[in-house]
User: Fold these one by one.
Assistant:
Number 1:
Amino acid sequence: MSGNPSCAVRRRVSDATPCGAGHALSHYELAFLSGGPRRAINTALAVLATAGAVRVSRGSQVTPVFGAPPSPVPIEQAVLATLAARPGGYRASELRRALAAHPALAELAAGLERRGLIVPERARLRGPVDLHRDRALHRGHRARQARPQPAERRHPGGPRGPALGP
């Protein structure tokens, strides 16, 4: 191996097989990871428009195309079903709001959560983590545990126990 040593390293790294299990992600999962439910719905609209299943006007009015084949993808099915339920279609922003709590999006998020790719909703509701506050609370808890308790609190009835009769 004569020549530039960095070239040899590049060759060895490029020949290596990746370790660990990768995540095969659909375009809807990628969209959800990069922009949440809004981006996933926009992706569905783009896919459906490209396939000719919906039309999007310049004013962002989304309408279904009569006779378009049904989709096997749950998010696309949700978009088409929501559009079919309202003659005249939706504005894109209204459609996103109407679909925000749809079970298809909830299942998409749950699948990403099960794979450890997003944080569960209940964990996000706690708010931002404040390490300084959490450490101070923890120090205060340890200090309370180490503090000696008054005799009355250690032994009911005083330091020698409950009184025995009159």
Number 2:
Amino acid sequence: MRQRQSIRIPWRFGTATSAALLVALLVAVAAAPASADRIDGTARTAHTVHAYEKARARVDRLKDERAPAERVRSAEDRRKTLRDRLWDELRRSQRALYDPVAVDRSGRAGRCPRGKSPKKKGSWQTPVANYWLTAGFAAGGDRWRHRHTGQDFAVNSGTPVRSVGPGTVWATTCGDGFGNQVLVRHRDGYFTQYAHLSRIDVRKGQRVTAGRRLGLSGATGNVTGPHLHFEVRITPYLGSAVPPLPWLARHGVRVR
């Protein structure tokens, strides 16, 4: 019988950041089926997620300290290498699981419900207005097979869902537990996910500004009622989520 091996990780962040990343690590590990091979693979992915966030924080710190360009470039290369490794690992695994984000980015096969979105310019913001927060990142409970991978915003069905910042629509899909969903890639390389929509108002490859309407909230997929599931990922694939509220805070967005 294969034995599970523990992973030792040197925590050098501040207390709050380390706690948030530890939760992210545990969420990713908890998401694996109970076979030894899957546990090993998921633990490896979770370790890469943590390593990436650590590398990203190092790049930010070196820039703030105005470190020599060579040191910044070396740190940035390390960050990109980790992202590419994570991307390749998750793309393969999610294709094998027929994740719509991995196999049908445009949503054409699923015939997702469509609308149109008027142009709007704005600054970084919350994805919906007039909300209240429900299930948070890493929350447990019998509503999920594993721990929660994002932040839920409870809103009425039909509430406009907007891009939190400028970026490009990476995928518009439907048909799995996330229901109708949109993924946006932002300039810092991270992806935001907007799930359980009743309608999608943008197309794959479309550029969006902060505040651009992506669709309308709803209750599609695996839900108990209308809400927006908001997630932040290092890659577009499930398994690379990071705590969303600290990420929004880095962009000046306060969620209350």
Number 3:
Amino acid sequence: MMDANQAFEAVRAGWDDSILEGTWITPCEVEAFRRVKGAYGLLIALEHAVVLNIRKLKTACVEPGLYLYVGSAYGAGGIGARLARHFKADKAIHWHVDRLTVEASRLAAFVWPDGQECTLVNHLLKTGVYEVAVAGFGSSDCQSCPSHLLTVQAHTKK
């Protein structure tokens, strides 16, 4: 069984141009993506369960493991501003994903300039490596995706 850090790095290493063209970034690199519009995947490692207090979602708890939250940023601040917020530990809870990022033991992000979040979600679900983690999570305004929070399956079960 891989430990959490090994699994986290295996997921990052497994993304290459066969998945999608884009770039993995760390919190130190978000400024380079200010004003860049597009989609992103936020890799979230949870070492303990997180209880969700979201009335519209039926799942009340997210178990320890690796998750990928898919979002987009088409506002003035772009992907860099959105990811800077996600990487920030001390923040007011605004989006569903904030409940996870404040509890995460580790975060990394994949940036897909000009990408669409729903295209990314659908592509990832087809790989067999990702599954819907919580139906409706982060996708309340989306008509085509079952969720924007995916469980990373293949690397956590080894």
